[in-house]
Structure formats: structure tokens, C-alpha cells
Amino acid sequence: MITLFWYGVNVPRPKQYEPDLRDRLIDAAGRLLAEEGPTALTTRRVVAAAGTTTNALYTLIGGKAELVGAMYLAGFRRLADRMDAVPEDIAPLERLSLLGGAYLDNAFANPHLYTVMFERPIPDFTPSDADLTEALSTLQRLIDQVDRCIAAGVMAPSPTAHDQAMALWAMSHGICSLTIAGMFDPAEARALCAQASTALGIGFAVGTR
Questions:
Q1: Do the beta carbons of residue 75 and residue 117 sit within 8 Å?
Q2: To 5 degrees, how large is the angle CA 94–CA 172–CA 166?
Q3: Which of 9, 26, 106, 176 is the most buried (most CB within 10 A)?
Q4: HSE-up (13 A, CA, CB side) for residue 208
Q5: How far apart are the C-alpha atoms of 150 and 77, rounded to whole Å?
Q6: How far is CA 200 from CA 166, 179, 182, 195, in A?
Q7: Is the pTM above the cut of 0.70?
């Protein structure tokens, strides 16, 4: 058996990329998808839009399947970051309202990822079980806050916290989707969301009286 010794040989270091390059690739891919559809989502187009190389894409993310998965998770992770930034030491209902605002803010800041999160613009893309679990864990923050409102006596215990949170999420999602489609501007959307949240909150609070 021959043993090779590499002492004294200069081994090239792995190439270092800018810290934000992965996000730039994800955003570039998302915008191409939103503006031109799935056919625009090619390696050449994505790296050109991000101002980098094919090697960077494959090193930092992978191929097309991994890129779409990264876009999907990035949308939910950015949503989680915005929701986690909402202060905890405030009244339960006020915090619930602010979480709704964080949901809208994330959708309006990342419309190119919002469609990947919920609308499956790539027909053959299906999130893995692990990715789907992580995505749904983001929405657990909303369920937990409704639970706090129930514990504080400002929302009814029935329907369940899960069902109330899903109703609030569905309402917010509908308004976000319509806004991204151009039916409302962000200011109108926030006003509509506040009105709808108040109406739902009154309905959910009836059982506490």
C-alpha cells in the first residue's frame, strides 16, 4: 500500500463568500420567479441577478430543488424573526395585534418569497417533512399568544386557541395575498386587518362575558 504524505504542500483554502451572498441569491431567485415565472429560475439567470458565480450558488445552496427549498424556508425564518422582535412585556391583546402587524410587514417586505411560502408557484416543489415542520412552528407563535389571551380572560376558551389563531391567520393571509396582487396598498391592508382583527376579537371575546 502506498501512503501519500502532504507535508509542505500548499492546500488552497475554501473560497470565502460575502456574509449576505446566500440571502442575495435567494432574493434574486424569488424576484425572478415572481416577475417572470418558473422558466426564469435558471442557474445562469439567478447568479447573474445576484452578481456572483455558479460555483457560489452550488456551494452555498445547491441546485434548483435546494434553491426553491431555501426560498421557502427563508420566508418563514424572516417571518419568525419579525414576530420574535415583538416585545413580550405588553398586554396580551396588544401583542396579538402586533404579531398580526409583523405578519403583514414580512409579507410586504418579501412578496417574492410569500408566494413560495403559500402558493407553490413551482408545481413540482413539495417541502420536506422537516421543512414543513419548521414552517408551521413559526405559526405556533400566534397560537401561543391566543393561549395567553385566553389565560388572561380577554378571549374565550372556545373555540380552541388553535382554531382562533387559524382564523386570524386566514384573515391576514387573505389580505396579504390581495395586497400583493395589487388590490390594496399596504396602508389600506393594515387598516383592513385592524378592522377584521377587532371584529374577530369581539366575536371570540363574547364567551368571556
A1: yes
A2: 85
A3: 26
A4: 14
A5: 27
A6: 12, 20, 25, 9
A7: yes
